[in-house]
Write a structure and sequence with these properties.
383 residues; alpha/beta; FAD/NAD(P)-binding domain; 2 domains; five-stranded parallel β-sheet; four-stranded parallel β-sheet
Length: 383
Amino acid sequence: MKKVLILGGGIGGVASAIAFRKQGFQVELVSDRDYLFIYPLAIWIPVGSEKFRNVSMPLSKLADKHGFSLTIDRVIALDGIQKTITLEHTGIRNSPALVVVALGAAKMKHKGIEHTCSICGNPEESLVLKDKIEELVERGIGKIAFGFGGNPKDSSSVRGGPAFELFFNLHHHLKKLGIREQFEMTFFAPMAEPGARMGKKALSAMSTMFKANNFDTRYGKKISRFVEDGVVFEDQSKLQSDLTMFIPAGEGDELIKASNLPQNSAGFICIDNFCRIDGISGWYAVGDAAALEGPDWKAKQGHIAELMANNAAVNAAIEHAGQKGAIKGYQEHLNVVCVMDMGDSAGFVYRNTVRELFIPMPVVGHWLKKSWGHYYKLSKRWL
């Protein structure tokens, strides 16, 4: 049985492990965490409507269910020429026949970032943010600033959706407590139209909702630095804030940047349409670690990582068997899909090369997103 080594225990890594097992490969997954953190569900942790334990799944249980082996260790070096992988505790590994790099991305480093919390950083940050929100609620008054950043070298690595979702959920939370009017809520981003990749219909709907809910905005100004009490922009204007939540754009992990793997200017791994790393036979990259090719509005989302994982497994099986069947590309399937939760409702966003949709879903939309969370966890346990 041909062996495959999966590097990374996130959504893309777990999907790869399951997909390669279904194709009959012997799979080992290496992760520096012993649980899968389901980032799309993390928007509810800071406002207390979901528990941390319900947004994570033990990798050991997934390994037992799907029949792959699990190694808890951290990858510290990759060599695509010598085909070796170095782990922090278990040392250098010679590459098996197949390797899938699903190590995710690093976050761009902004001056003063320690004065912010993120919903897309280390999972534990969601709990820190929860504590800060509770402190602010206890005070009963304050200024709140939420935002996200961009990466001019690779716009597909921007994470705006979770920032909008948590912003709306916090607004709903404060309304339920009867204290929303005591807080100034401002959304900031360096681009002139944050969320534009969702399409014009979604952007228009977002603008309407912002006005209806008395949200302030600070768009189109680059961020100079974060300070303890706010955000300073490049023109030296300042957004005052008692609580700043910020999601930096992604960039290539330092491990990838230091390797000899082919990379784009942002440090993401260059792959072909079939998720094969350029010039390295038998090595694949999926999810946030990979450089996507496609339309300007392309975005790295969980369902794209899963699509890439499944394609990589099918393609590897076809090539391993020496068959001439059609291998699967990811580019034709690129789209933006999001059920943007707002705490008591949601909006369905869809965009591909042919059309774009925004469908308001009062009440039912919120429960649809909640239901997706249950489905995702059940699908990994049973399917």
